[in-house]
Structure formats: C-alpha cells, structure tokens
Design goal:
Elements (H helix, E strand, L loop, with lengths): L5 E5 L8 H16 L3 E7 L5 E2 L4 E2 L4 H13 L6 E4 L6 E3 L2 H10 L2 E5 L14 E6 L4 H7 L3 H8 L3 E4 L18 E3 L22 E7 L7 E3 L2 E3 L4 H4 L12 E7 L3 H9 L3 E4 H5 L2 H9 L3 E4 L3 H6 L6 H8 L4 E4 L13 E4 L2 H13 L1 H16 L1 H12 L2
Parallel strand pairs: 1-2, 1-7, 2-5, 7-8, 8-9, 9-10, 11-14, 11-16, 14-15, 16-17, 17-18
Antiparallel strand pairs: 3-4, 5-6, 12-13
Helix pairs in contact: 1-9, 1-14, 11-13, 12-13
C-alpha cells in the first residue's frame, strides 16, 4: 500500500463495455496511481451488463468480466478490481473478503458519472465524490424537487462537474445547495502518442465517435424543452461537406439505415462505432489516425452554457489532433482559436477548417499543448484530491 491513502474509482466498464468508457476510467486510475494513491476499480451496482456480441443487456456477465479483466491486466491493475454482477450478486476480481477489507480502509471513493447508487457500506467511506460528466439534467431535477436525484447527490460529501461554467453570469443552469467544483477529464498524454513519442501521421478525415440518437433525457425548464440527443445538432450542419473539400467521417452507433442514407447523401462518411469501440486500441488508433475532430454538443449544454467539454475530445487533443466543437461556453475556461475551436454556426466551422489547413503542424502542436496544460491526469486528479483534503 502506498503512503497517500486508498481511493476507489467506481465505474461502469462492465455495464457499458466500450472503449470510450474504458479510457475514461483508466485515465482516472492512472492519475491517482501516479500521485501515489493505492487505487482500485470498483463496479458494484445492481445493473445488468451489456453484451456487444449478443447486442443486448443480459444476466450473463462473462463478456463484461473478460473485458474488465483484460484491461486491468494490460494496464497494471490486475489485482486491483472488483465487479459485482447485478444479476447474480456474485463478485469477480477481488474476493468478497478482500474487497470488504479495502472498502473498510478506503479514504475516498470517486463515483464516476454518478452511476453507482451508494449502499450503506459505501457510505462508510469518509470522502465520497460525486463526479458528474454530464451536467444540466441533475441540476434541473434538483431544482424541480426530484427526490431520487436529491438523495443520490446527498449520499456524497463532495460534488464535481464537467460543467465548468456553472455559476457564471452567462450560465443559466439552476444552482442549489449542492456546491459543485469544476473539473474535467484527466488524460494520460503519452498514452495517445506512438511508442517513439513522435506525432502519428494524420489521416485525411475529421472524425468523431458517438451515438446518433439518444432518447429519454430531454427535460423542461422555465417553459423550454432542452434536448439531449446530439443528432439534432448534427442535422443543423448537415450541408457542411458540400461547402468544403474536407472529408468528414462519423463513427456512429444507435443509428438506422435511413439516417445513414441521409448523411451519406449529404457527403458524410459513416462507419460502425460499435465495432470500433469494442477494442480500446482500435478506438485509440482511430483517433490518432484522424486529421482532427469535428463534433457537436447537446442542446442542453449549448443553450444553458454549462461549459461542458467532452472526455473524448480531450483525447483527440492529447493525440495532437485539433478539435472543432460546438460552443458550450468552455471557451470561458479553455483557450480557443488555436488547436481548439468553438463554433456556433457554419461560418465558425469553415473558419476553423481554414485556420487548421493553413498551418496544420502548428495547430496540431497547440492541440497537444492544451492537453498537457489543462487535461494532464496528474494535474486534474491532483486538483480534485486537494479540494477534498486527500
């Protein structure tokens, strides 16, 4: 055991065994490890796992366990994880006795994405961090008096959010008695470069990875409906390929054949995000093989100006890939205009493309510089540790 204390990172790699989730978790684990903490990955929910082979949520956790086990072995956490099946209540990785002992001595837990409903034994950990990667909806639900959300938040001692503009004069996300500390995705910068540390040769496409349609999380606030699904924002810019010679490729899941035909008819290239996301190396290679990222944000973050910034976009920056993304007011916190560009309309995208094309090497270097200065894992995790007194 190391000298700085024991930290448990609660996540959902088995519930959602895809590369984007895995990289998010792994970079938190590595950040705490590099700071000298005794760190463990914990998945202890009542949720059944998703099996990509069956393309279904099921009570068979073999795929989930194999996915976690392989990653923990590869990244040096082989004896530092536990997964409890929501279907059978059986645990994998650490034994029940060892997990109970580690939970008993833990100094802090990090509830990544706030996905774990803390049970009594979890609540005995003295520092309990609610780490919100998707702001807006929880704040609105608290303002509406939704008891479930209030109780989930109240089970934690500290609350962090990727909504770094919350509380700013131009942000209209409702605030409550829960005090939020701003944070962002930690990135292990060298993980996104080739082994020889030279920048990978860029491809010819601006890309992104994600879901096309996501339903069930639209919300109403002050008489306005705020949307969750990003496809509604992409459709506003569907004519982009016809306005430039640049190639654009979208790696998408949760998309039907009609939507693919619509995108391709407008000049977008579409590939399967599920196949890409089942392997963490393939996912990373896709980002490193891109010219940059062109993506959008959720309507909720855009109109309410939460300051949210994507964990995936942070990885593009670390790979030295310039990012062009929809404005959520993150420019109030992060530098924009070189390496990272915020847009509100089509002209903003075209201007960013022109600037990147005029001096790609400079823009690539600036992207990596932003990752190193603002997203470096030791810095981001270290700031969080200081706030909570670790």
């Amino acid at each position: 055991m190391t000298g700085r204390g024991t930290v448990l990172v609660f996540g959902t790699m088995g519930q959602t065994p895809f590369a984007g989730i895995a990289w998010q978790v792994l970079q938190y684990l590595e950040g705490f490890r590099r700071l000298g903490f005794d760190v463990y990955y914990v998945e202890d929910t009542d949720t059944w796992p998703f099996d990509p082979v069956r393309n279904a949520v099921c009570d068979d956790c073999r795929y989930a366990v194999g996915f976690i086990d392989g990653l923990m072995e590869e990244f040096g956490f082989a004896d530092r994880w536990v997964y409890r099946s929501g279907a059978t209540d059986r645990t994998y990785g650490l034994s029940d006795a060892r997990f109970a002992a580690i939970l008993e001595r833990a100094d802090a837990l990090v509830n990544l994405t706030g996905a774990t409903i803390l049970r009594e034994e979890h609540r005995r950990v003295p520092v309990r961090i609610y780490l919100e990667t998707d702001p807006v909806l929880p704040q609105i639900e608290v303002a509406q008096g939704r008891r479930f959300t209030i109780d989930v938040l109240a089970a934690h001692t500290h609350h962090f959010t990727f909504g770094e503009n919350l509380g700013a004069p131009d942000c209209t996300v409702p605030l409550s008695d829960f005090k939020y500390f701003a944070t962002r995705q930690p990135v292990v910068v060298e993980w996104w470069s080739p082994a020889d540390r030279r920048p990978a040769a860029p491809g010819d496409s601006f890309t992104t990875i994600g879901n096309w349609v996501q339903s069930g999380k639209d919300t109403e606030w002050n008489g306005e409906i705020y949307r969750w699904s990003k496809h509604l924002e992409f459709l506003k810019f569907i004519d982009l390929p016809s306005l430039t010679a640049q190639r654009f490729e979208l790696a998408l899941s949760q998309i039907d054949a009609d939507a693919i035909r619509l995108l391709e008819a407008h000049g977008w290239h579409v590939v399967d995000a599920v196949l890409l996301s089942c392997d963490v190396d393939r996912y990373r290679d896709y980002i490193r093989g891109s010219l940059g990222e062109l993506t959008v944000a959720k309507d909720q973050n855009i109109r309410l100006r939460s300051g949210w910034f994507s964990d995936r976009s942070a990885c593009y920056l670390a790979a030295g890939r310039p990012v062009i993304t929809q404005d959520t007011a993150f420019g109030n916190i992060l530098p924009v205009g070189e390496g990272l560009f915020a847009f509100s309309d089509m002209d903003g995208i075209l201007d960013a493309l022109e600037r990147i094309g005029a001096d790609y090497q400079r823009q690539s270097a600036k992207a990596r510089e932003i990752a190193d200065q603002y997203f470096k894992a030791e810095r981001v995790v270290g700031d969080m540790a200081r706030v909570v007194g670790l």
